[in-house]
Write a structure and sequence with these properties.
By secondary structure, the protein is an alpha+beta fold. Helices cover 26% and strands 35% of the residues. Strand 6 and strand 7 form a beta hairpin.
């Protein structure tokens, strides 16, 4: 049994001493946010980002909205003013108060499972702080109390390379050696004061494995008209299924039935671009309300994807602009408006075969100083021999962990 991971990291660089300031305002006039609203916000961001990242490029795409959103939630805890407002709107967070961070933490806790479960799901956080550097007490209460982050002293100023190696080793360890060199050379320097890291480990197999003996070479019809031979898995089984005039939607569950992969397959082999322009959380909700267990012939390619993105431009286009400028206000961290986000990097990996899904994702947010029913008679055929969209989500909360599109299967 192999592994599925999420990994995220937030790197914060700043300089001045911290004045005490209330970070999270508990405003009694604002209704408390619910966990359902947290999930709704996460999933809405997942689709917003998917629409942005697939707008121009018809290529393999894979990322973790949970990773990105979780990393930026810890950053949001220190945001103020217009910066906080833009982050809230872009990432579909709740109001900047205790209720939001408590419910976000509750969601993360709900994604964990007991040792008796049929799969493993663990989440680890760490806060790496420059030795003798003082952060705002209220901010630390949020990242340590709500996000359960370990606090570790480190020397960014005198030993930047050693610090980078230490954190990257922690990352590698928490992801079973799947993510290497998350923090690149020269990302840590004398201005670095704190780096926040988060890792999620998921270990599961398909609830109904594909028989390797049934896998055979078949054609896959790519977006550019190219036809490639790929290893196509096959099985016949009863699955949750729905369809519209434009696409088929199929759920493949993992062992324990708490997580699933949702595949959205355009009926037109060249229809992924059209699908991407209109797909949203509402379509997933319609599937959940109308799906039925059907007898399905499933043809699914084995595939392996590795992706890397710099997220600045995407998030700015989506409305989060001040955080990347000298107008940034992260004074909830330091008591001063001395920080802006320099870069946000995201890497992801996924491999799908007959037995399991294995994946990993990493996010780094680098901050720097500012200048300031009954079965049919015949089975339904679900032949994924052309580009499709896919989602890995929790079955109970419906929270999206991973999301992407496959346009060209890569050989395993």
């Amino acid at each position: 049994m192999k592994k599925l991971f999420i990994l995220l990291a937030v790197s914060l660089l700043f300089f001045s001493a911290c004045a005490q300031k209330e970070v999270i305002q508990d405003v009694s006039t604002v209704p408390a946010i619910t966990q359902e609203q947290i999930v709704e916000g996460l999933n809405t961001f997942a689709f917003d980002f998917y629409n942005s990242i697939t707008k121009q490029a018809l290529e393999n795409t894979f990322y973790s909205p949970l990773s990105i959103s979780s990393a930026l939630a810890m950053t949001y805890a220190g945001a103020e003013g217009e910066t906080a407002k833009q982050m809230q709107q872009t990432l579909h967070y709740g109001p900047q108060d205790v209720s939001f961070h408590s419910q976000f933490a509750n969601l993360i806790e709900s994604l964990r499972v007991s040792e008796k479960s049929d799969f493993e799901m663990t989440i680890a956080n760490a806060v790496w702080v420059q030795n003798n550097y003082k952060l705002q007490k209220n901010y630390l209460q949020i990242v340590k109390g709500k996000y359960l982050s370990e606090a570790r002293g480190i020397d960014f100023i005198s030993q930047p390379d050693a610090s980078r190696e230490t954190i990257n080793e922690w990352v590698s360890d928490k992801t079973a050696n799947r993510i290497h060199n998350l923090i690149p050379p020269n990302a840590i320097n004398a201005m670095t004061r704190m780096i926040l890291t988060n890792a999620v480990y998921f270990n599961a197999e398909w609830s109904h494995k594909f028989n390797p003996k049934m896998t055979r070479k078949e054609s896959f019809y790519c977006m550019n008209g190219e036809i490639i031979e790929t290893d196509m898995m096959y099985q016949r089984h009863y699955y949750q299924y729905s369809q519209t005039s434009d696409y088929q939607m199929l759920e493949l569950t993992y062992k324990g039935y708490e997580y699933s992969m949702l595949i959205i397959l355009p009926k037109n082999p060249g229809g992924l671009s059209k699908l991407n322009k209109r797909i949203s959380c509402k379509d997933i909700a319609k599937h959940d309300n109308s799906k039925q267990q059907e007898d399905i012939l499933v043809y699914l390619p084995k595939f392996r994807l590795e992706t890397a993105y710099e997220l600045n431009a995407y998030l700015m286009e989506m409305g989060m602009t001040d955080a990347f400028s000298q107008q940034a206000d992260f004074s909830g961290m330091t008591g001063n408006k001395d920080l802006m986000i320099s870069s946000i990097f995201h890497k992801a990996f996924i491999e799908v075969d007959e037995e399991k899904t294995e994946a990993a994702a990493a996010t780094a947010v680098v901050m720097k100083l500012t200048a300031m029913a009954p079965s049919p008679v015949a089975p339904i055929e679900f032949r994924a021999d052309h580009p499709f969209m896919f989602i890995i989500r929790n079955q109970k909360e419906k929270a999206i962990l991973f999301m992407g599109q496959l346009t060209t299967p890569k050989a395993l």
